[in-house]
Write a structure and sequence with these properties.
By secondary structure, the chain is mainly alpha-helical. The protein is built from twelve helices and no strands.
Length: 209
């Protein structure tokens, strides 16, 4: 009897482990990678309801872009917010973008900056680049071109193509830094090497090929 109970317990644990939020998320990822979005969404949802932040992020993306569900920006924001509040940096970036563009929420530049700052604090190069844009244009923060260049430089050194391109333009135009065409070419070319289309066009326009 004891052996039978032990085997039953092991089987129960095995079955239960297949339904953990992490296991469900991993199954959903496999389906998502195969572009079987309609099958992935229910698994993402179940994992998200189990507080898996990666699943919450991906469910938000599905609603954001209409993958496997009807596009619903407010629902996207709801799931991004849950993941962002739990500390998911990618969700924080996406949520910031929603507040920046007014996707599913009213435009709110200060709140966008707040979420980008949270993501940047976790070392997100995307967040650093976007903070640079906010300071460059004075959106949600006082305009500060030197701080913008500083943030672009952080993103660029983390190999973010957008950060490299924006830093290169700062050096080209002398925005927040002393104009330096060598530095401009260096950073723009690094972005172009990563396939950044605007950087490649910038290289062509300046005959830097």
């Amino acid at each position: 009897m004891k052996r039978q109970l032990t085997i039953a317990t092991v089987l129960l644990i095995a079955l239960t482990s297949c339904e953990t939020p992490q296991a469900l998320y991993e199954q959903a990822e496999t389906l998502y990678a195969a572009r079987n979005y309609e099958a992935a969404v229910p698994l993402y949802r179940k994992a998200a309801e189990g507080n898996n932040t990666e699943a919450q992020l991906m469910l938000g993306k599905c609603y954001d872009f209409g993958y496997g569900v009807k596009k619903d920006l407010k629902e996207a924001v709801r799931w991004y917010t849950l993941a962002a509040q739990a500390g998911n940096a990618d969700a924080q970036n996406n949520l910031a973008g929603c507040y920046y563009s007014g996707a599913g929420v009213p435009v709110d530049m200060k709140t966008a900056v707040l979420w980008y700052e949270k993501a940047a604090a976790q070392g997100s190069p995307v967040a650093y680049n976007n903070l640079g844009l906010h300071y460059l244009n004075g959106q949600g923060v006082p305009q500060d071109r030197a701080k913008a260049a500083e943030y672009f430089a952080i993103a660029a050194k983390m190999n973010d193509a957008n950060g490299q391109y924006n830093l290169g333009k700062c050096y080209y135009m002398g925005l927040g830094v002393q104009s330096d065409l060598n530095q401009a070419r260096y950073w723009v070319s690094k972005a172009a090497a990563q396939g950044h289309r605007n950087a490649s066009l910038f290289m062509q326009d300046n005959n830097w090929q």
